[in-house]
Amino acid sequence: MSDRIYLYAIAEADSIDALDATGVRDAAVELLREGDLAAVVSPAPEGKLRPRRRNLAAHHDLLKALMEQATILPMAFGVLADSRDQVSDFLRRHVGTLRGQLEQVRGHAEIGLRVEWNVDDIFTHFVEQYDDLRTLRDSVYAGEAEPSRQEKIHLGEQFDAFLQDARAAHRRTVEAHLREVCRAIEGDEPTDETDVMNLACLVPRDGIERFEEALGAAAQEFSDDFTFTYTDSMAPYSFADVAFEEAQASGG
Predict the structure, then answer these.
(1) SS3 per residue for 137-150
(2) Given a cut of 70, is residue 231 above it in pLDDT?
(3) CB–CB of 59/74 below 8 Å?
(4) Could you tell me which residues are beta bridge partners of residue 186?
């Protein structure tokens, strides 16, 4: 039988009274204590662990249950340790950093916010919005001849510049409303041209309603060309930098 351990979260050792729960593949979950910290772990599943819906749901459901009784630093899905000793050593060596991060997220949850342009064609939308871009587009395609590669590249670069400026301006508008109701806000790089922003918001757990009100006020400043979507409150993944894999690779 393998000695490998699956990690779910880090918490203060005295913050979780009992664990009547199962984890990925119905594995029994336990607390591995080291000083005043503890790792929530289970035996590593046999065979290759894939991020299938059932496995992901088991991981996230356990974290959600843990959040009901403790402040936690969540681990990403699929983090494994070679042994219990390796986990204990990690907790000992990084106790100061982990304590600091637990204090940062105490009493808070993460809410993800995504804003998108709700338009049929993002380039056409920008051409209609910005005179300078429309003038450049018209000059590039004014003649009967096909524009040169360099002309197309220049037009694309100008479109991207307008896109980045618009994203930055819209993010400032949204953050102006959310700053007072969030402890911290982090942003991820857009993954699609129609993405305006992807934000992770660290929100007091007793302030979710105020966050929603502030978000509603922000959305009022945008036209129907934009779509706002946000997640339920969840474990603070974006605000927990528990780099166990790096420690493992360096022998920590």
Answers:
(1) HHHHCCCCCCCCHH
(2) yes
(3) no
(4) 200
